[in-house]
Amino acid sequence: MIGLIVYDASNALINTRVYAEVGLDPKVAIAAAKTNPHWQATKTRAAASVLAFFDECGLIGWENRWMLRKAGVIA
Known about the structure:
Elements: H1 2-12, H2 16-21, H3 26-35, H4 37-56, H5 62-71
Helix pairs in contact: 1-5
């Protein structure tokens, strides 16, 4: 569940309506945002301490790691 929650939360941080409201193509803008290295580094840094704690508690297994990678919060 942790991987799914983190994945959904990280995707919710990008508000797609904002792109359309400023005249950008939402699909192109979302793709650009998701591949932005600064955004990726920010997500990784923001999640690092809590994920380290969860990992120490044994809550991050292989089942969650693939989803955390897909969310862009771990390498």
